[in-house]
């Protein structure tokens, strides 16, 4: 490899071809830096978790899962005839084709920007050197003025007898055969999304969570309401429940519960969290400081304890969202190379980050929970509305929608906005812009709603509800 003027092979070496790594590599190369990106998964790994086994395929399968419900609801609008049957192999193949296309797009973007792609496993040797071992076990050393760690996270499966029999979210997209009975363990967004997806696709889904409510960290009203709606759609939701072991039997996989009960299913998804993907990276050898859980410690510019090494995205375990990894990558590029011409250096605020959970129905949220706002401000006003959407007056569905605003009383600013209902993510995105700009409840009240829509409810709620103690456990 040709040496740069600094004596290094590259100005920037990026470890990991996911969202953050690809964005940093592309932007740095476009500004004239000599960039190398190392990806362990080959071309098929480009795009990282989000593209390959995360956001994109999950959303595609979520769309697929809505059709069974949509066909049933169509009868109330005059459509007749039986619903078509799911062809699971067709869905899987169409997904593979789309993901392969996206992998190719990422590769073309990187190569077109002048990034040198190297496929293999990277291990830090020192503060400026990485050892890359390819699938043929041949190794090479690459030096770089700066190194960016963007290796993301990986699914975590707790220790339990028979844990080798369970699946993680990575394997759910290509199950063969389709599971007639699925057990989902966990109460976070990944568990809830897959429970909704496979329930919609036709599995008999049981979801077990050891806590009292789903979606820990979300607003308490949202957590309770979503659990009710998911159960209403046919998911056997069991809270305050815990698995102790798994074994294969003639009746299927047998999951034994701590209370002495058991469940026989065809497949078990363990979605109990993700951990930083740092195994084999050589972080300790290079002197990179980590938290007890392995997360790479970084400062405000995403610089690690080693000045030449940076880290972004899920490997730092700050906010595990694709758009956050992208934004963090841009902060690093501006810090190392200066901002783009005519632009100010980027900074990232972790306040008011909108997010969505693609359950059935969807969850959308931005800002503080009611409990957080009461702790922070004391005096808050809460506006809440629960109703059946217009569509379901004819569809026959019992699905209901919940919308909620949390307002700081002394400033009138809307500090929390939460929703469970159709297209919640699409709706909340626009309101997040308003909240980022400092919108008050008076601004919401002065905004004309689009009628008839679900979204208009956010600008028509006028009477606050009485304060009810919030339980966040």
Q: Summarize this, please?
A:
This protein is an alpha/beta fold.
Structural commentary:
With 473 residues, the protein is of the alpha/beta class. Helix 1 packs parallel to helix 8 and helix 3 packs across helix 5. The termini are far apart. It has 12 helices and 21 strands.
The tally of domains stands at 3
Instruction: Say how many strands there are.
Output: 21
Overall pLDDT score: 96
Portion in beta strands: 15-25%
Quickly give the CATH architecture of the largest domain. 3-Layer(bba) Sandwich
Q: Going by CATH, what is the homologous superfamily of the largest domain?
A: FAD/NAD(P)-binding domain
Major sheet attributes: 7 strands, mixed
Describe the global form.
globular
| Tally of alpha and pi helices | 12
Radius of gyration: 24 Å
- Per CATH, the class of the largest domain reads Alpha Beta
Distance between the termini: 54 Å
Low-confidence stretches: none
Structural class comes to: alpha/beta
CATH fold group of the largest domain? FAD/NAD(P)-binding domain
As a percent range, the share of helical residues equals 25-40%
Walk me through the topology:
Elements: E1 10-15, H1 19-30, E2 35-39, H2 48-53, H3 55-74, H4 88-112, E3 116-119, E4 121-126, E5 129-133, E6 139-149, E7 153-155, E8 181-185, H5 189-201, E9 204-209, H6 220-232, E10 236-239, E11 243-249, E12 252-257, E13 262-265, E14 267-270, E15 274-276, H7 283-286, E16 309-311, H8 322-337, E17 355-357, E18 363-367, H9 370-377, E19 380-387, H10 392-395, E20 401-408, E21 414-420, H11 424-436, H12 441-446
Helix pairs in contact: 1-8, 3-5
């Amino acid at each position: 490899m040709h040496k740069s003027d600094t004596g290094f092979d590259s100005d920037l070496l990026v470890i990991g071809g996911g969202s953050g790594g690809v964005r940093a590599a592309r932007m740095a190369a476009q500004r004239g830096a000599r960039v190398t990106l190392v990806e362990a998964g080959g071309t098929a790994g480009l795009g990282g978790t989000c593209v390959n086994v995360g956001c994109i395929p999950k959303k595609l399968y979520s769309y697929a899962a809505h059709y069974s419900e949509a066909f049933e609801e169509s009868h109330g609008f005059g459509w007749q005839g039986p619903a078509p049957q799911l062809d699971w192999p067709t869905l899987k193949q169409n997904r593979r084709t789309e993901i392969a296309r996206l992998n190719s797009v990422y590769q073309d973007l990187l190569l077109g920007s002048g990034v040198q792609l190297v496929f293999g496993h990277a291990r830090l040797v020192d503060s400026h050197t990485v050892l890359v071992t390819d699938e043929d076990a041949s190794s090479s050393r690459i030096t770089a003025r700066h190194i960016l760690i963007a290796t993301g996270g990986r699914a975590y499966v707790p220790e339990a007898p028979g844990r080798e029999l369970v699946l993680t979210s990575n394997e759910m997209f290509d199950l063969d055969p389709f599971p007639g009975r699925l057990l989902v363990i966990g109460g976070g967004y990944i568990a809830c999304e897959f429970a909704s997806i496979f329930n919609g696709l036709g599995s008999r889904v049981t979801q077990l969570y050891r806590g009292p409510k789903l979606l820990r960290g979300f607003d308490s009203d949202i957590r309770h309401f979503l659990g009710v709606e998911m159960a209403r759609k046919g998911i056997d939701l069991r809270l305050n429940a815990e698995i102790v072991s798994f074994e294969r039997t003639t009746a299927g996989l047998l999951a034994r519960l701590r209370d002495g009960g058991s469940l026989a299913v065809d497949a078990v998804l363990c979605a109990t969290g993700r951990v930083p993907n740092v195994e084999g990276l050589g972080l300790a050898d290079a002197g990179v400081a980590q938290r007890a859980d392995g997360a790479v410690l970084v400062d405000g510019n995403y610089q690690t304890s080693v000045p030449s090494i940076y880290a972004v995205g899920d490997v730092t375990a700050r906010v595990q969202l694709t758009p956050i990894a992208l934004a963090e990558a841009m902060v690093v590029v501006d810090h190392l190379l200066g901002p783009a011409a005519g632009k100010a250096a980027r900074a990232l605020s972790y306040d008011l980050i909108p997010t969505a959970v693609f359950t059935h129905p969807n969850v959308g949220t931005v800002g503080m929970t009611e409990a957080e706002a009461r702790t922070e401000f004391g005096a808050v006003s809460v506006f809440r509305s629960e109703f059946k959407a217009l569509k379901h007056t004819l569809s026959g569905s019992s699905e209901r929608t919940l919308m909620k605003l949390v307002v700081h009383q002394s400033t009138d600013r809307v500090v929390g906005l939460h929703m469970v209902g159709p297209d919640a993510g699409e709706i909340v995105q626009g309101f997040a812009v308003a909240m980022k700009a400092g919108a008050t409840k008076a601004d919401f009240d002065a905004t004309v709603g689009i009628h008839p829509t679900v979204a208009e409810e956010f600008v028509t709620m006028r009477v606050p509800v009485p304060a009810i103690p919030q339980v966040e456990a």
